[in-house]
Amino acid sequence: MVAYTTANPKHSEYHYTDVPFQLAHYEDHGVGTTDHDIVQTLKQCIAVLQGKGNATTNPHNFTPRQALLMLTHLTGDIAQPLHVGEGYVGKNGGFVVPTQKQLDDKEAFATQGGNNLQLDDIKLTAKSSELIPAAAPDDSKPAAPARTPQATRAFHSYWDTTVVNYAFRRIGARTPEQFAQMVSAGNPVVAPNSGDPVTWPYAWADQTLVVAKLAYADVVPGPMAQQI
């Protein structure tokens, strides 16, 4: 791991891209994209596994083993709406689709995958208790203590925990394995990928932008404030 992180100093940025969530498509060199974001990194992994890795297609010099490990992880990340769709907030409030100049001039600001969007945790906790079904009793282990609400909570954290908790309880699943089995048993319609696999990350990002619009649908940015 040390060798990998040393050779890949931007490895933490391989897991996401910051396309404005209002857009329909990921475009190379568009606002919020980089040469080492999740789409470009997935392209490199696929090229390596196709035996087509070279200085141009694999600038990070991934080995086949690294490429396979990254591919299996990042195909999960790219399906996460907050790992693809970014909410940019204008200087005067409200979500905007900024130009690069507006970002450079600090006329608009990235929310870092929703991490800089602070939600009212007390209100959300109360609302969640109304909407999320109670957990099924499990006599095999003691009940976990209830989480104490904070004053605010990052939108990304809310999406990663509360929304997942809701999805599990809604169908009666207790583990990720159970959830996967129950969803698969419903035979969901999944559109097959087509064309050269190296182009698939673009399609995956576009699909996730559709979901990102739903994730941000009822989020209304308030005045900007200094985070402590």
TrEMBL record:
Domain of life: Eukaryota
Protein name, UniProt field: Aspergillus nuclease S1
Species in which this protein is naturally found: Ricinus communis (Castor bean)
EC number(s) on file: 3.1.30.1
Reaction equation(s) it catalyzes: Endonucleolytic cleavage to 5'-phosphomononucleotide and 5'-phosphooligonucleotide end-products
Phylogenetic classification of the source organism: Eukaryota, Viridiplantae, Streptophyta, Embryophyta, Tracheophyta
A GO biological process held by the record: DNA catabolic process
Pfam families in the cross-refs: S1-P1_nuclease (PF02265)
UniProt similarity note: Belongs to the nuclease type I family.
Single GO molecular function: endonuclease activity
Keywords: Disulfide bond, Endonuclease, Glycoprotein, Hydrolase, Metal-binding, Nuclease
PANTHER family recorded: ENDONUCLEASE 1, ENDONUCLEASE 4
Alphabetical list of InterPro entries matching this protein: PLipase_C/P1_nuclease_dom_sf, S1/P1nuclease
